[in-house]
């Protein structure tokens, strides 16, 4: 039994469609152990571990506590929902479909004051298998429109990132070698 991770607890609270009730530490553990199937994953943790993870989420503003007649209820906050989207970015995988003869070009102009977002964008473009032609110009022969749209929305830079679909590109022979087409 390892520690309850903040990421795991946040995903659990986000996945539960109803509120996550913390009656007290023992009741929470009992609910996890004997309650509905969607929270059975908590049964291997001690109540103190669950409470510590929830407190960590509260400190970060990813969840909020609300007092109700049922007891103390933990709900995912808007910031927590946004954080869950970031976790999904880690799952991005490049598509290796049959080449349709078109090039996808991603270009961006993210201000220096948002350097962190720019660096994250580059990291995710690289993870998607795009090739860097210049610092802010990336290319791929594979469809990536949905993934790029998702990345720019999650990073909150929708107007700074553009995607073009090209039928021909000047250095196509070099790119075909790079992508082994």
Automatic annotation (TrEMBL):
Superkingdom of the source species: Bacteria
Coiled-coil parts of chain:
none
| One Pfam entry name | PaaX_M
**An example molecular function term from Gene Ontology annotations:** RNA endonuclease activity
Instruction: Indicate the segments forming the Transcriptional repressor PaaX-like central Cas2-like domain, all copies.
Output: 97-163
| Gene Ontology biological process terms from the UniProt entry | DNA-templated transcription; maintenance of CRISPR repeat elements
Q: What is this protein called?
A: Transcriptional regulator, PaaX family
Source organism per entry reads Candidatus Amesbacteria bacterium GW2011_GWC2_45_19
């Amino acid at each position: 039994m390892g520690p309850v991770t903040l990421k795991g607890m946040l995903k659990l609270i986000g996945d539960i469609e109803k509120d996550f009730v913390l009656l007290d530490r023992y009741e929470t553990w009992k609910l996890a152990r004997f309650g509905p199937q969607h929270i059975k994953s908590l049964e291997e943790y001690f109540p103190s571990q669950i409470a510590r993870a929830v407190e960590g989420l509260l400190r970060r503003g990813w969840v909020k506590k609300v007092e109700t007649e049922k007891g103390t209820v933990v709900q995912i906050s808007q910031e927590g929902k946004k954080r869950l989207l970031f976790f999904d970015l880690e799952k991005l995988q490049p598509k290796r479909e049959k080449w349709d003869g078109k090039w996808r070009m991603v270009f961006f102009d993210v201000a220096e004051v948002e350097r962190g977002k720019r660096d994250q964008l580059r990291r995710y473009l690289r993870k998607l298998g795009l090739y860097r032609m210049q610092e802010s110009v990336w290319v791929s022969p594979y469809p990536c429109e949905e993934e790029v749209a998702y990345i720019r929305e999650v990073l909150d830079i929708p107007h700074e990132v553009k995607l073009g679909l090209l039928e021909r590109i000047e250095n196509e022979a070099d790119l075909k070698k790079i992508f082994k087409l």
